[in-house]
Design brief:
The protein is mainly alpha-helical. It is built from twelve helices and no strands. Among the domains are: 90 residues, no CATH class; 80 residues, Serine Threonine Protein Phosphatase 5, Tetratricopeptide repeat (Alpha Horseshoe), CATH 1.25.40.
Length: 246
C-alpha cells in the first residue's frame, strides 16, 4: 500500500515538473531556433491539457501558439498558420469562457487578429478594429502587464502610417514593456517573450535612427544570452556591418 502511494506521489511530482519545464524548454527552442522542438512541445502540452484542463497550462500553450504562428507567417506558411490560429482561438475562448479575464489573453487576442490581417489583407479594416478593441481592453484590465505594452508596440510599429501607425510611438511602448518585464524577475527570467521584446526594441531603435541605443540593446541581449541565435548571427552582425563602431 505504501509503495502504491509512493509511486503515485512520484508520478505527480514528475508531471508537475514537466508542466513547469514547458516554458523553459520553449525558451531554449526560441534561443536556438529549434522550431521542430517547439512544435513537439506544443503537442505535448495539448496532450496534457486534454487530461488536466489546467488554465495555466492552456495559457502557456496559447503563448507558444502565438510565437509559432508568427514564425510560420514569417516563412509564408499561411495554411499552417491559419490552422494554428484556429486552435489558438479555441484556447482563448475557453480561457475567457471560464472566467479568466486576463489582460495577457486579450493582448494575445489582439495579436492574433493582427496575424489574420497578414493572412487576409482584404479584411484589414474589420480585423484591425477588433485588434484595437482587444488591445484597449487588455490595457484597461492591467496597465502594468508587460505583454500588453509589447503587443501595443507591435501593433503601432507594424501598422502602416496611412492607418495611424508610428514607429516613434512604438519605441516608447517597447521601452515601457521592457521596463515592466524587468521590474519583476519572474517576468524576465527564461522568458522568450521578454527576449523577443528586447529584440523588437533594438530593431525599433535602429529603424528610428537611434543607432547608439540599438547597439546597446543588442549587446545587452547577448550579455544575457550569448547563444541567442537570431541576435548573434543575424541582427547584431548586420547592425555592426551597417554601423561600424556603434
Amino acid at each position: 500500500m505504501m509503495r502504491y502511494f509512493f509511486t503515485l506521489y512520484m508520478l505527480l511530482v514528475v508531471l508537475a515538473a514537466e508542466a513547469q519545464d514547458y516554458r523553459k524548454s520553449i525558451y531554449q527552442a526560441y534561443l536556438h531556433e529549434k522550431m521542430d522542438l517547439w512544435k513537439e512541445l506544443m503537442k505535448q502540452m495539448e496532450s496534457e491539457l486534454s487530461r488536466t484542463s489546467d488554465p495555466k497550462l492552456m495559457y502557456d500553450l496559447l503563448e507558444a501558439e502565438y510565437g509559432y504562428t508568427a514564425w510560420l507567417i514569417s516563412l509564408k506558411r499561411k495554411k499552417e498558420a491559419g490552422e494554428l490560429i484556429k486552435c489558438a482561438e479555441r484556447h482563448m475562448a475557453s480561457l475567457t469562457d471560464n472566467g479568466l479575464e486576463d489582460a495577457r489573453v486579450y493582448s494575445l487576442r489582439g495579436a492574433f487578429y493582427g496575424f489574420k490581417i497578414l493572412l487576409e489583407p482584404r479584411k484589414a479594416p474589420s480585423l484591425g478594429r477588433l485588434a484595437m478593441e482587444a488591445s484597449e481592453l487588455a490595457l484597461e484590465l492591467d496597465p502594468k502587464e508587460p505583454q500588453v505594452w509589447l503587443e501595443k508596440a507591435n501593433m503601432e510599429y507594424y501598422r502602416p502610417v496611412i492607418f495611424g501607425g508610428s514607429r516613434r510611438k512604438a519605441v516608447l511602448m517597447y521601452e515601457r514593456a521592457v521596463e515592466l518585464f524587468e521590474s519583476s524577475p519572474g517576468d524576465s527570467s527564461e522568458n522568450w517573450v521578454y527576449m523577443n521584446c528586447l529584440a523588437g526594441l533594438g530593431i525599433a531603435y535602429e529603424n528610428t535612427r537611434k543607432i547608439s541605443e540599438a547597439g546597446e540593446v543588442y549587446r545587452k541581449i547577448l550579455s544575457l544570452e550569448p547563444s541567442f541565435k537570431w541576435v548573434k548571427e543575424e541582427l547584431y552582425p548586420r547592425f555592426r556591418e551597417k554601423h561600424p563602431g556603434k
